[in-house]
Design goal:
This protein has 628 residues and is α+β, with helices and mostly antiparallel strands. 40% of the residues lie in helices and 13% in strands. Helix 19 packs across helix 21 and helix 19 crosses helix 23. It is globular, with a radius of gyration of 23 Å. The two termini are 35 Å apart.
Protein backbone atom coordinates (compact mmCIF):
# COMPACT_ATOMS: atom_id res chain seq x y z
CA UNK A 1 0.00 0.00 0.00
CA UNK A 2 1.03 3.57 -0.59
CA UNK A 3 0.80 5.98 2.34
CA UNK A 4 0.57 3.12 4.84
CA UNK A 5 2.80 0.25 5.92
CA UNK A 6 -0.15 -2.11 6.44
CA UNK A 7 1.25 -2.99 9.88
CA UNK A 8 -0.15 -2.43 13.37
CA UNK A 9 2.12 -2.97 16.35
CA UNK A 10 0.70 -4.70 19.45
CA UNK A 11 2.59 -4.41 22.74
CA UNK A 12 1.74 -6.26 25.96
CA UNK A 13 3.10 -4.49 29.03
CA UNK A 14 2.32 -7.44 31.29
CA UNK A 15 4.27 -10.07 29.35
CA UNK A 16 6.64 -7.59 27.67
CA UNK A 17 6.00 -9.13 24.29
CA UNK A 18 5.07 -7.53 20.98
CA UNK A 19 3.60 -8.75 17.71
CA UNK A 20 2.48 -7.46 14.32
CA UNK A 21 -1.05 -7.38 12.95
CA UNK A 22 -1.72 -6.81 9.24
CA UNK A 23 -4.96 -5.29 8.02
CA UNK A 24 -6.34 -5.47 4.45
CA UNK A 25 -6.45 -2.33 2.34
CA UNK A 26 -10.26 -2.25 2.48
CA UNK A 27 -10.08 -1.87 6.26
CA UNK A 28 -7.88 1.20 5.83
CA UNK A 29 -10.38 2.70 3.38
CA UNK A 30 -13.09 2.50 6.04
CA UNK A 31 -11.16 3.72 9.09
CA UNK A 32 -8.43 5.83 7.36
CA UNK A 33 -6.47 6.91 10.48
CA UNK A 34 -6.57 9.34 13.41
CA UNK A 35 -9.45 9.05 15.84
CA UNK A 36 -11.44 6.74 13.55
CA UNK A 37 -8.73 4.09 13.33
CA UNK A 38 -7.85 4.48 17.00
CA UNK A 39 -11.51 4.07 18.00
CA UNK A 40 -11.89 1.01 15.77
CA UNK A 41 -8.79 -0.60 17.29
CA UNK A 42 -10.20 0.15 20.73
CA UNK A 43 -13.47 -1.54 19.73
CA UNK A 44 -11.55 -4.63 18.63
CA UNK A 45 -9.18 -4.93 21.59
CA UNK A 46 -11.00 -3.81 24.75
CA UNK A 47 -12.86 -6.01 27.20
CA UNK A 48 -16.36 -4.40 27.11
CA UNK A 49 -17.50 -3.07 30.46
CA UNK A 50 -14.01 -2.97 31.96
CA UNK A 51 -12.82 -0.41 34.48
CA UNK A 52 -10.99 2.31 32.49
CA UNK A 53 -8.07 2.11 34.91
CA UNK A 54 -7.73 -1.68 34.62
CA UNK A 55 -5.23 -3.59 32.45
CA UNK A 56 -8.16 -4.53 30.17
CA UNK A 57 -8.38 -0.97 28.77
CA UNK A 58 -5.91 -0.74 25.87
CA UNK A 59 -4.12 2.33 24.60
CA UNK A 60 -4.70 2.77 20.86
CA UNK A 61 -2.52 5.17 18.89
CA UNK A 62 -3.31 5.62 15.18
CA UNK A 63 -1.26 7.70 12.83
CA UNK A 64 -2.53 10.06 10.19
CA UNK A 65 -2.46 9.30 6.49
CA UNK A 66 -0.42 12.43 5.78
CA UNK A 67 2.13 12.25 8.62
CA UNK A 68 5.63 12.53 7.23
CA UNK A 69 4.44 13.86 3.86
CA UNK A 70 4.46 17.47 2.57
CA UNK A 71 0.71 17.89 3.31
CA UNK A 72 0.27 20.98 5.51
CA UNK A 73 -1.00 20.34 9.08
CA UNK A 74 -1.02 16.60 8.33
CA UNK A 75 1.38 15.64 11.12
CA UNK A 76 -1.19 14.42 13.63
CA UNK A 77 -2.22 11.20 15.36
CA UNK A 78 -5.28 9.90 17.18
CA UNK A 79 -5.35 8.37 20.66
CA UNK A 80 -8.22 6.29 22.06
CA UNK A 81 -9.00 4.47 25.30
CA UNK A 82 -12.04 4.12 27.48
CA UNK A 83 -12.19 7.38 29.42
CA UNK A 84 -11.78 7.26 33.21
CA UNK A 85 -13.59 10.58 33.32
CA UNK A 86 -16.71 9.63 31.34
CA UNK A 87 -16.76 5.83 31.06
CA UNK A 88 -17.31 6.25 27.31
CA UNK A 89 -14.99 6.73 24.35
CA UNK A 90 -11.95 8.82 25.10
CA UNK A 91 -10.51 10.03 21.81
CA UNK A 92 -7.92 12.75 21.40
CA UNK A 93 -5.65 14.27 18.79
CA UNK A 94 -2.16 15.63 19.00
CA UNK A 95 0.44 16.58 16.46
CA UNK A 96 3.97 17.61 15.61
CA UNK A 97 7.04 15.35 15.46
CA UNK A 98 5.87 12.24 17.36
CA UNK A 99 3.51 11.01 14.57
CA UNK A 100 6.16 11.78 11.94
CA UNK A 101 8.66 9.59 13.80
CA UNK A 102 6.02 6.87 14.17
CA UNK A 103 5.28 6.95 10.45
CA UNK A 104 8.96 6.73 9.61
CA UNK A 105 9.35 3.74 11.94
CA UNK A 106 6.98 1.77 9.70
CA UNK A 107 3.89 1.46 11.92
CA UNK A 108 0.41 2.71 11.12
CA UNK A 109 -0.85 2.23 14.66
CA UNK A 110 0.07 0.89 18.10
CA UNK A 111 -2.14 -1.03 20.53
CA UNK A 112 -0.77 -1.29 24.07
CA UNK A 113 -2.28 -4.01 26.27
CA UNK A 114 -2.00 -4.97 29.93
CA UNK A 115 -0.08 -3.17 32.65
CA UNK A 116 3.55 -3.07 33.71
CA UNK A 117 4.69 -4.11 37.17
CA UNK A 118 7.21 -1.23 37.19
CA UNK A 119 7.35 2.15 35.51
CA UNK A 120 8.36 1.69 31.89
CA UNK A 121 9.29 3.66 28.80
CA UNK A 122 8.40 1.73 25.64
CA UNK A 123 10.99 2.55 23.00
CA UNK A 124 10.12 1.73 19.38
CA UNK A 125 13.27 1.83 17.28
CA UNK A 126 11.96 1.03 13.79
CA UNK A 127 11.12 -2.71 14.08
CA UNK A 128 12.56 -3.19 17.56
CA UNK A 129 10.50 -2.75 20.73
CA UNK A 130 12.37 -2.21 23.99
CA UNK A 131 11.01 -1.92 27.52
CA UNK A 132 13.24 0.57 29.31
CA UNK A 133 13.22 1.12 33.05
CA UNK A 134 11.46 4.46 33.70
CA UNK A 135 11.58 4.57 37.49
CA UNK A 136 14.05 7.44 37.43
CA UNK A 137 11.66 9.42 35.23
CA UNK A 138 8.87 9.30 37.80
CA UNK A 139 8.11 12.75 39.19
CA UNK A 140 9.52 14.59 36.18
CA UNK A 141 7.15 16.91 34.37
CA UNK A 142 6.20 16.30 30.77
CA UNK A 143 8.89 18.51 29.23
CA UNK A 144 11.59 17.19 31.55
CA UNK A 145 10.63 13.62 30.66
CA UNK A 146 11.03 14.19 26.94
CA UNK A 147 14.44 15.80 27.44
CA UNK A 148 15.63 13.09 29.84
CA UNK A 149 14.75 10.36 27.35
CA UNK A 150 16.60 12.09 24.51
CA UNK A 151 19.65 12.58 26.71
CA UNK A 152 19.57 8.96 27.87
CA UNK A 153 19.35 7.66 24.29
CA UNK A 154 21.90 10.22 23.02
CA UNK A 155 19.62 11.10 20.10
CA UNK A 156 17.73 14.35 19.74
CA UNK A 157 15.63 12.82 16.94
CA UNK A 158 13.83 10.48 19.34
CA UNK A 159 10.28 11.68 19.88
CA UNK A 160 8.22 10.81 22.94
CA UNK A 161 4.67 10.95 24.17
CA UNK A 162 4.76 11.25 27.95
CA UNK A 163 2.75 11.71 31.11
CA UNK A 164 3.55 14.03 33.99
CA UNK A 165 2.90 13.83 37.72
CA UNK A 166 -0.85 14.22 37.11
CA UNK A 167 -0.95 11.01 35.09
CA UNK A 168 1.24 9.22 37.62
CA UNK A 169 -1.25 10.17 40.36
CA UNK A 170 -4.20 9.06 38.18
CA UNK A 171 -5.83 12.49 37.95
CA UNK A 172 -8.88 11.55 35.91
CA UNK A 173 -8.34 14.43 33.48
CA UNK A 174 -4.60 13.94 33.06
CA UNK A 175 -3.39 14.08 29.48
CA UNK A 176 -0.56 12.85 27.27
CA UNK A 177 2.04 15.30 25.97
CA UNK A 178 4.38 15.14 22.98
CA UNK A 179 6.58 17.89 21.56
CA UNK A 180 4.86 20.41 23.82
CA UNK A 181 1.42 19.48 22.44
CA UNK A 182 -1.30 17.70 24.38
CA UNK A 183 -3.59 14.80 23.59
CA UNK A 184 -6.03 16.33 26.00
CA UNK A 185 -9.45 15.84 27.55
CA UNK A 186 -10.99 12.51 28.66
CA UNK A 187 -8.06 11.40 30.87
CA UNK A 188 -5.59 9.47 28.72
CA UNK A 189 -2.80 10.34 31.13
CA UNK A 190 -4.58 8.47 33.93
CA UNK A 191 -4.93 5.39 31.69
CA UNK A 192 -1.17 5.48 31.01
CA UNK A 193 -0.49 6.00 34.71
CA UNK A 194 -2.63 3.00 35.65
CA UNK A 195 -0.37 0.90 33.41
CA UNK A 196 2.82 2.45 34.81
CA UNK A 197 3.56 3.65 31.29
CA UNK A 198 5.59 6.84 31.64
CA UNK A 199 6.32 7.32 27.95
CA UNK A 200 6.26 5.88 24.44
CA UNK A 201 9.36 6.89 22.51
CA UNK A 202 9.94 6.44 18.79
CA UNK A 203 12.90 6.61 16.46
CA UNK A 204 11.98 6.21 12.78
CA UNK A 205 14.57 6.10 10.02
CA UNK A 206 12.54 5.12 6.96
CA UNK A 207 10.98 7.18 4.22
CA UNK A 208 7.26 7.55 3.50
CA UNK A 209 6.21 6.29 0.07
CA UNK A 210 3.20 7.88 -1.66
CA UNK A 211 1.47 7.02 -4.93
CA UNK A 212 1.86 10.30 -6.80
CA UNK A 213 4.55 12.50 -5.18
CA UNK A 214 4.46 15.18 -7.86
CA UNK A 215 0.73 15.80 -7.51
CA UNK A 216 0.95 15.64 -3.73
CA UNK A 217 3.75 18.19 -3.71
CA UNK A 218 1.86 20.55 -6.00
CA UNK A 219 -1.35 20.32 -3.93
CA UNK A 220 0.60 20.80 -0.71
CA UNK A 221 2.42 23.86 -2.07
CA UNK A 222 -0.86 25.50 -3.13
CA UNK A 223 -2.45 24.89 0.28
CA UNK A 224 0.65 26.18 2.05
CA UNK A 225 0.45 29.40 0.08
CA UNK A 226 -3.20 29.84 1.04
CA UNK A 227 -2.32 29.11 4.66
CA UNK A 228 -0.02 32.12 4.65
CA UNK A 229 -2.83 34.39 3.50
CA UNK A 230 -5.95 36.01 4.98
CA UNK A 231 -7.76 32.78 5.89
CA UNK A 232 -5.44 32.03 8.80
CA UNK A 233 -4.36 35.51 9.82
CA UNK A 234 -6.24 35.44 13.13
CA UNK A 235 -4.46 32.24 14.12
CA UNK A 236 -1.04 33.46 12.98
CA UNK A 237 -1.25 36.83 14.72
CA UNK A 238 -3.21 36.27 17.94
CA UNK A 239 -3.96 32.56 17.94
CA UNK A 240 -7.25 31.26 19.30
CA UNK A 241 -7.02 33.71 22.20
CA UNK A 242 -8.60 36.21 19.83
CA UNK A 243 -11.88 34.54 20.82
CA UNK A 244 -11.88 36.10 24.30
CA UNK A 245 -13.23 39.48 23.22
CA UNK A 246 -15.44 37.96 20.53
CA UNK A 247 -17.16 35.64 23.02
CA UNK A 248 -17.41 38.43 25.56
CA UNK A 249 -19.18 40.65 23.03
CA UNK A 250 -21.66 37.86 22.26
CA UNK A 251 -22.29 37.24 25.97
CA UNK A 252 -20.87 33.72 25.63
CA UNK A 253 -17.59 34.00 27.59
CA UNK A 254 -17.93 31.62 30.57
CA UNK A 255 -17.31 33.65 33.70
CA UNK A 256 -17.22 32.55 37.36
CA UNK A 257 -18.19 28.95 36.64
CA UNK A 258 -20.57 29.83 33.80
CA UNK A 259 -22.68 32.08 36.04
CA UNK A 260 -22.14 34.94 33.59
CA UNK A 261 -21.33 35.36 29.92
CA UNK A 262 -19.40 38.61 30.14
CA UNK A 263 -16.24 39.35 32.11
CA UNK A 264 -15.49 42.85 33.25
CA UNK A 265 -11.74 42.25 32.92
CA UNK A 266 -11.87 40.57 29.53
CA UNK A 267 -9.53 43.15 28.00
CA UNK A 268 -6.75 42.21 30.45
CA UNK A 269 -6.87 38.52 29.50
CA UNK A 270 -7.53 38.95 25.79
CA UNK A 271 -5.41 37.75 22.91
CA UNK A 272 -4.70 41.36 22.04
CA UNK A 273 -3.41 42.12 25.54
CA UNK A 274 -1.38 38.93 25.61
CA UNK A 275 0.25 39.78 22.27
CA UNK A 276 1.27 43.23 23.50
CA UNK A 277 2.42 42.40 27.03
CA UNK A 278 3.29 38.69 27.31
CA UNK A 279 4.36 37.41 23.90
CA UNK A 280 7.58 35.40 23.72
CA UNK A 281 7.30 33.70 20.33
CA UNK A 282 4.98 31.75 18.06
CA UNK A 283 5.42 28.03 17.47
CA UNK A 284 4.25 25.73 14.69
CA UNK A 285 3.71 21.98 14.85
CA UNK A 286 5.54 19.76 12.36
CA UNK A 287 4.18 20.19 8.81
CA UNK A 288 2.35 23.39 9.81
CA UNK A 289 2.67 26.69 7.91
CA UNK A 290 0.33 28.54 10.31
CA UNK A 291 2.11 28.65 13.71
CA UNK A 292 -0.86 29.34 15.94
CA UNK A 293 0.65 28.55 19.34
CA UNK A 294 1.26 31.72 21.30
CA UNK A 295 4.06 31.10 23.77
CA UNK A 296 3.60 33.69 26.51
CA UNK A 297 5.37 34.51 29.76
CA UNK A 298 4.40 36.03 33.08
CA UNK A 299 6.66 39.04 33.44
CA UNK A 300 5.91 40.40 36.89
CA UNK A 301 4.47 39.58 40.28
CA UNK A 302 4.39 36.24 42.08
CA UNK A 303 4.46 34.24 38.86
CA UNK A 304 7.16 36.04 36.90
CA UNK A 305 9.01 33.53 34.75
CA UNK A 306 6.10 31.16 34.17
CA UNK A 307 5.85 30.42 30.46
CA UNK A 308 3.76 28.18 28.22
CA UNK A 309 1.65 28.12 25.07
CA UNK A 310 -1.77 29.74 25.44
CA UNK A 311 -4.97 28.74 23.63
CA UNK A 312 -8.45 30.19 24.08
CA UNK A 313 -9.95 27.13 25.77
CA UNK A 314 -7.25 26.98 28.42
CA UNK A 315 -7.36 30.76 28.84
CA UNK A 316 -11.13 31.00 29.43
CA UNK A 317 -11.08 28.12 31.93
CA UNK A 318 -8.22 29.51 34.02
CA UNK A 319 -9.05 33.19 33.60
CA UNK A 320 -12.61 34.52 33.26
CA UNK A 321 -14.19 31.31 34.49
CA UNK A 322 -12.24 31.71 37.76
CA UNK A 323 -12.91 35.45 37.87
CA UNK A 324 -9.16 36.07 37.37
CA UNK A 325 -8.15 39.10 35.33
CA UNK A 326 -4.38 38.88 35.90
CA UNK A 327 -2.73 37.38 32.82
CA UNK A 328 0.37 36.52 34.83
CA UNK A 329 -1.68 34.22 37.03
CA UNK A 330 -3.50 32.71 34.05
CA UNK A 331 -0.18 31.83 32.42
CA UNK A 332 1.00 30.24 35.67
CA UNK A 333 -2.15 28.13 35.95
CA UNK A 334 -1.83 26.85 32.40
CA UNK A 335 1.88 26.17 32.91
CA UNK A 336 1.06 24.02 35.95
CA UNK A 337 -1.37 22.01 33.83
CA UNK A 338 0.96 21.64 30.82
CA UNK A 339 4.02 20.64 32.81
CA UNK A 340 2.04 18.50 35.22
CA UNK A 341 0.32 16.66 32.39
CA UNK A 342 -3.18 17.78 33.38
CA UNK A 343 -5.92 18.98 31.05
CA UNK A 344 -6.00 22.76 31.53
CA UNK A 345 -9.67 23.07 30.54
CA UNK A 346 -10.90 20.49 33.04
CA UNK A 347 -8.52 21.91 35.64
CA UNK A 348 -10.04 25.38 35.37
CA UNK A 349 -13.67 24.26 35.27
CA UNK A 350 -13.16 21.92 38.23
CA UNK A 351 -11.54 24.69 40.27
CA UNK A 352 -14.42 27.01 39.36
CA UNK A 353 -16.88 24.41 40.74
CA UNK A 354 -14.86 24.33 43.98
CA UNK A 355 -14.83 28.14 44.17
CA UNK A 356 -18.59 28.40 43.72
CA UNK A 357 -19.10 25.60 46.22
CA UNK A 358 -17.02 27.58 48.73
CA UNK A 359 -18.92 30.80 48.09
CA UNK A 360 -22.22 28.93 48.55
CA UNK A 361 -21.08 27.44 51.85
CA UNK A 362 -20.75 23.84 50.71
CA UNK A 363 -17.03 24.00 51.53
CA UNK A 364 -15.41 25.83 54.44
CA UNK A 365 -11.93 27.30 54.83
CA UNK A 366 -10.77 24.22 56.73
CA UNK A 367 -11.64 22.02 53.73
CA UNK A 368 -8.71 23.64 51.93
CA UNK A 369 -5.88 22.71 54.28
CA UNK A 370 -2.56 21.84 52.66
CA UNK A 371 1.15 21.94 53.38
CA UNK A 372 1.35 25.52 52.16
CA UNK A 373 -1.69 26.64 54.16
CA UNK A 374 -2.07 24.31 57.16
CA UNK A 375 -5.05 26.32 58.48
CA UNK A 376 -6.73 26.31 55.08
CA UNK A 377 -7.49 29.14 52.68
CA UNK A 378 -10.50 30.85 51.08
CA UNK A 379 -10.82 30.17 47.34
CA UNK A 380 -13.17 32.97 46.32
CA UNK A 381 -13.57 33.81 42.65
CA UNK A 382 -10.74 36.10 41.60
CA UNK A 383 -8.30 34.72 44.17
CA UNK A 384 -5.42 33.85 41.88
CA UNK A 385 -3.14 32.54 44.61
CA UNK A 386 -5.86 30.15 45.77
CA UNK A 387 -6.42 28.94 42.19
CA UNK A 388 -2.70 28.27 41.70
CA UNK A 389 -2.58 26.37 44.98
CA UNK A 390 -5.60 24.28 44.00
CA UNK A 391 -4.05 23.46 40.61
CA UNK A 392 -0.95 22.16 42.39
CA UNK A 393 -3.08 20.22 44.88
CA UNK A 394 -5.01 18.57 42.03
CA UNK A 395 -1.82 17.62 40.21
CA UNK A 396 -0.42 16.08 43.42
CA UNK A 397 -3.75 14.80 44.82
CA UNK A 398 -3.04 16.70 48.03
CA UNK A 399 -5.88 17.40 50.46
CA UNK A 400 -9.07 18.42 48.69
CA UNK A 401 -7.10 18.10 45.46
CA UNK A 402 -7.65 14.37 45.78
CA UNK A 403 -11.39 14.97 45.40
CA UNK A 404 -11.04 17.56 42.65
CA UNK A 405 -8.74 15.24 40.70
CA UNK A 406 -11.82 13.07 40.12
CA UNK A 407 -13.45 15.79 37.97
CA UNK A 408 -16.63 17.77 38.56
CA UNK A 409 -19.10 14.92 38.04
CA UNK A 410 -17.60 12.50 40.56
CA UNK A 411 -16.64 15.29 42.97
CA UNK A 412 -20.12 16.84 43.02
CA UNK A 413 -21.85 13.49 43.42
CA UNK A 414 -19.57 12.52 46.27
CA UNK A 415 -19.97 15.82 48.10
CA UNK A 416 -23.75 15.88 47.64
CA UNK A 417 -24.06 12.33 48.96
CA UNK A 418 -21.90 13.09 52.00
CA UNK A 419 -23.24 16.58 52.86
CA UNK A 420 -26.78 16.56 51.53
CA UNK A 421 -26.03 19.49 49.20
CA UNK A 422 -26.95 20.20 45.57
CA UNK A 423 -23.61 21.15 44.06
CA UNK A 424 -24.51 19.14 40.94
CA UNK A 425 -26.54 22.19 39.91
CA UNK A 426 -23.34 24.08 39.17
CA UNK A 427 -21.16 21.12 38.09
CA UNK A 428 -20.45 22.11 34.50
CA UNK A 429 -19.90 18.86 32.66
CA UNK A 430 -21.52 16.68 30.00
CA UNK A 431 -21.10 12.92 30.45
CA UNK A 432 -18.41 13.77 32.99
CA UNK A 433 -16.29 15.92 30.67
CA UNK A 434 -16.02 19.57 31.70
CA UNK A 435 -17.65 22.04 29.31
CA UNK A 436 -15.75 24.14 26.75
CA UNK A 437 -15.61 27.92 26.43
CA UNK A 438 -18.90 28.60 24.65
CA UNK A 439 -22.04 29.11 26.73
CA UNK A 440 -24.71 26.93 25.12
CA UNK A 441 -27.59 29.00 26.52
CA UNK A 442 -26.95 31.41 23.67
CA UNK A 443 -26.10 28.75 21.07
CA UNK A 444 -29.13 26.52 20.57
CA UNK A 445 -27.73 24.45 17.69
CA UNK A 446 -24.49 23.90 19.56
CA UNK A 447 -26.42 22.80 22.64
CA UNK A 448 -27.53 19.55 20.99
CA UNK A 449 -24.09 19.07 19.45
CA UNK A 450 -22.62 19.24 22.95
CA UNK A 451 -25.30 17.11 24.59
CA UNK A 452 -25.08 14.33 22.01
CA UNK A 453 -21.31 14.37 21.63
CA UNK A 454 -19.73 10.95 22.07
CA UNK A 455 -16.76 12.46 23.91
CA UNK A 456 -18.79 14.61 26.31
CA UNK A 457 -18.72 18.41 26.50
CA UNK A 458 -16.42 19.09 23.54
CA UNK A 459 -16.18 21.96 21.04
CA UNK A 460 -13.75 20.05 18.81
CA UNK A 461 -15.97 17.10 17.95
CA UNK A 462 -19.04 19.23 17.20
CA UNK A 463 -18.63 22.34 15.07
CA UNK A 464 -22.28 23.28 15.58
CA UNK A 465 -21.30 26.54 17.28
CA UNK A 466 -20.13 27.83 13.88
CA UNK A 467 -23.55 28.28 12.22
CA UNK A 468 -24.87 29.79 15.46
CA UNK A 469 -22.06 32.33 15.81
CA UNK A 470 -21.80 33.08 12.08
CA UNK A 471 -25.51 33.96 11.97
CA UNK A 472 -26.46 31.19 9.56
CA UNK A 473 -29.26 30.38 12.01
CA UNK A 474 -30.86 32.29 14.87
CA UNK A 475 -28.78 31.22 17.83
CA UNK A 476 -31.55 31.93 20.36
CA UNK A 477 -34.29 29.85 18.74
CA UNK A 478 -34.83 26.32 17.48
CA UNK A 479 -36.50 24.94 14.38
CA UNK A 480 -36.75 21.66 12.52
CA UNK A 481 -33.44 22.20 10.67
CA UNK A 482 -31.18 22.15 13.73
CA UNK A 483 -30.81 18.39 14.05
CA UNK A 484 -29.40 18.12 10.55
CA UNK A 485 -27.18 21.16 11.03
CA UNK A 486 -25.71 19.64 14.21
CA UNK A 487 -25.27 16.22 12.58
CA UNK A 488 -23.63 17.66 9.46
CA UNK A 489 -21.15 19.84 11.36
CA UNK A 490 -20.22 16.90 13.57
CA UNK A 491 -19.46 14.64 10.61
CA UNK A 492 -17.64 17.49 8.87
CA UNK A 493 -15.37 17.84 11.91
CA UNK A 494 -14.87 14.06 12.03
CA UNK A 495 -13.33 14.08 8.54
CA UNK A 496 -10.57 16.39 9.76
CA UNK A 497 -10.11 14.32 12.94
CA UNK A 498 -9.74 11.12 10.92
CA UNK A 499 -7.26 12.13 8.22
CA UNK A 500 -6.29 13.92 10.50
CA UNK A 501 -5.80 17.52 9.43
CA UNK A 502 -5.84 20.54 11.74
CA UNK A 503 -9.17 22.35 11.33
CA UNK A 504 -7.39 25.69 11.08
CA UNK A 505 -6.65 24.80 7.45
CA UNK A 506 -10.34 24.44 6.60
CA UNK A 507 -10.71 27.77 4.79
CA UNK A 508 -7.49 27.36 2.80
CA UNK A 509 -9.06 25.33 -0.02
CA UNK A 510 -11.49 27.89 -1.45
CA UNK A 511 -11.89 30.42 1.34
CA UNK A 512 -15.03 28.74 2.66
CA UNK A 513 -15.14 26.28 5.52
CA UNK A 514 -17.56 23.87 3.89
CA UNK A 515 -17.65 20.55 2.04
CA UNK A 516 -17.95 22.16 -1.39
CA UNK A 517 -14.70 24.01 -0.81
CA UNK A 518 -12.62 21.34 0.91
CA UNK A 519 -13.77 17.89 -0.20
CA UNK A 520 -12.56 17.95 -3.84
CA UNK A 521 -9.05 18.91 -2.75
CA UNK A 522 -9.05 16.49 0.18
CA UNK A 523 -10.05 13.68 -2.21
CA UNK A 524 -7.11 14.61 -4.45
CA UNK A 525 -4.76 14.58 -1.44
CA UNK A 526 -6.00 11.12 -0.43
CA UNK A 527 -5.66 9.75 -3.96
CA UNK A 528 -2.20 11.21 -4.53
CA UNK A 529 -1.07 9.67 -1.24
CA UNK A 530 -2.66 6.23 -1.55
CA UNK A 531 -3.45 5.65 -5.21
CA UNK A 532 -7.12 5.17 -4.33
CA UNK A 533 -10.01 6.67 -6.27
CA UNK A 534 -11.85 8.61 -3.59
CA UNK A 535 -14.56 11.02 -4.66
CA UNK A 536 -16.71 13.66 -3.00
CA UNK A 537 -19.13 11.20 -1.36
CA UNK A 538 -16.28 9.00 -0.16
CA UNK A 539 -14.88 11.93 1.82
CA UNK A 540 -18.31 12.43 3.43
CA UNK A 541 -18.32 8.78 4.48
CA UNK A 542 -15.01 9.23 6.32
CA UNK A 543 -16.78 11.45 8.84
CA UNK A 544 -19.91 9.31 9.05
CA UNK A 545 -17.92 6.17 9.78
CA UNK A 546 -15.63 7.92 12.26
CA UNK A 547 -18.53 9.16 14.31
CA UNK A 548 -20.44 5.90 14.00
CA UNK A 549 -17.68 3.70 15.43
CA UNK A 550 -17.35 6.01 18.44
CA UNK A 551 -21.10 6.03 18.97
CA UNK A 552 -21.17 2.23 18.66
CA UNK A 553 -18.47 1.97 21.32
CA UNK A 554 -20.56 4.05 23.71
CA UNK A 555 -23.69 1.99 23.05
CA UNK A 556 -21.80 -1.20 23.85
CA UNK A 557 -20.59 0.44 27.08
CA UNK A 558 -24.18 1.10 28.16
CA UNK A 559 -25.05 4.50 26.69
CA UNK A 560 -28.73 5.53 26.77
CA UNK A 561 -30.62 8.58 25.55
CA UNK A 562 -30.49 10.05 29.07
CA UNK A 563 -26.71 10.36 28.77
CA UNK A 564 -27.15 13.05 26.11
CA UNK A 565 -27.71 15.86 28.59
CA UNK A 566 -26.69 19.41 29.46
CA UNK A 567 -25.67 20.87 32.82
CA UNK A 568 -28.51 21.89 35.13
CA UNK A 569 -27.39 25.54 34.95
CA UNK A 570 -27.96 25.76 31.21
CA UNK A 571 -31.51 24.50 31.63
CA UNK A 572 -32.56 26.63 34.59
CA UNK A 573 -30.32 29.67 35.19
CA UNK A 574 -30.50 32.43 32.58
CA UNK A 575 -27.65 34.93 32.55
CA UNK A 576 -28.56 38.40 33.76
CA UNK A 577 -26.36 40.59 31.56
CA UNK A 578 -24.73 40.66 28.16
CA UNK A 579 -25.94 39.88 24.66
CA UNK A 580 -27.13 36.39 25.66
CA UNK A 581 -28.95 37.40 28.85
CA UNK A 582 -32.32 35.85 29.62
CA UNK A 583 -31.86 32.66 27.61
CA UNK A 584 -31.73 29.00 28.61
CA UNK A 585 -32.09 25.71 26.78
CA UNK A 586 -35.19 24.22 28.33
CA UNK A 587 -35.32 20.48 28.93
CA UNK A 588 -38.22 20.30 26.46
CA UNK A 589 -36.16 22.11 23.82
CA UNK A 590 -33.27 19.72 24.28
CA UNK A 591 -35.49 16.65 23.97
CA UNK A 592 -36.96 18.06 20.75
CA UNK A 593 -33.47 18.82 19.41
CA UNK A 594 -32.35 15.29 20.26
CA UNK A 595 -35.31 13.88 18.31
CA UNK A 596 -34.30 15.97 15.30
CA UNK A 597 -30.63 15.06 15.64
CA UNK A 598 -31.21 11.30 15.95
CA UNK A 599 -33.52 11.37 12.95
CA UNK A 600 -30.91 13.27 10.90
CA UNK A 601 -28.34 10.61 11.80
CA UNK A 602 -30.68 7.83 10.70
CA UNK A 603 -30.92 6.40 14.22
CA UNK A 604 -33.91 5.28 16.29
CA UNK A 605 -35.82 7.65 18.57
CA UNK A 606 -33.77 6.25 21.45
CA UNK A 607 -30.55 7.11 19.62
CA UNK A 608 -29.58 3.55 18.71
CA UNK A 609 -28.08 2.61 15.34
CA UNK A 610 -30.06 0.31 13.00
CA UNK A 611 -28.27 -2.80 11.76
CA UNK A 612 -28.97 -1.87 8.16
CA UNK A 613 -27.14 1.44 8.53
CA UNK A 614 -24.09 -0.22 10.07
CA UNK A 615 -23.99 -2.85 7.32
CA UNK A 616 -24.29 -0.12 4.69
CA UNK A 617 -21.20 1.54 6.22
CA UNK A 618 -19.20 -1.71 6.02
CA UNK A 619 -19.44 -2.41 9.77
CA UNK A 620 -21.07 -5.83 9.71
CA UNK A 621 -19.44 -7.08 12.93
CA UNK A 622 -20.52 -3.90 14.73
CA UNK A 623 -24.07 -4.43 13.45
CA UNK A 624 -24.13 -7.89 15.01
CA UNK A 625 -22.90 -6.51 18.32
CA UNK A 626 -25.09 -3.44 18.88
CA UNK A 627 -27.40 -2.90 15.86
CA UNK A 628 -31.17 -2.82 16.32
Amino acid sequence: MYGYSGKILHIDLTTRKSWTERKPEEWYKIYIGGVSMAARLLWENIKPGCDPLSPDNPICIANGMFAGTPVPVGGKYGLASKSPLTGFIGDSLSGSWFPVALKRSGWDAIVIHGASAEWVNVFIDDDRVMFRDARKLVGLNTYETEEAIREELLDDQVRSATIGPGGEKLVRFANVTNDGRQAGRTGHGAVWGSKKLKAVSVRGTRGVVVADPDTLMKLSFDITQQAQGPYTVKYRVLGTATNVLNMNKLGLLPTRNFQQGVFEMAEQVSGEYMEEHHKVKKIACAQCPIACEQVSAAKQGLYAGAMTGIEYECLFANGPNLGIGDMNAVIKLIEIADRGGVDAMSQGVTISWAMESFERGVFKKEDFKCKKYPEGFEPNFGNAEAAVTLAEMIRDREGIGDLLAEGTRIASRRVDAERGTESYKWAMHIKGLECPGYDARGLKTFSVGLAAGTRGGCHNRSAAYDPDIQGEVNRFTIDETRGKVAADTEEYAAVYDTLPLCKFIRRCFTGKADRAGAWPTIAKLINATTGWNFGYEDVDLIGVRAHTIKKAFNIREGWTRADDHLPYRWHHDPMKEGASAGHVVTEEELEYLKDLYYAAKGWTKEGLIPKAKLIELGMEDVAEAIGV
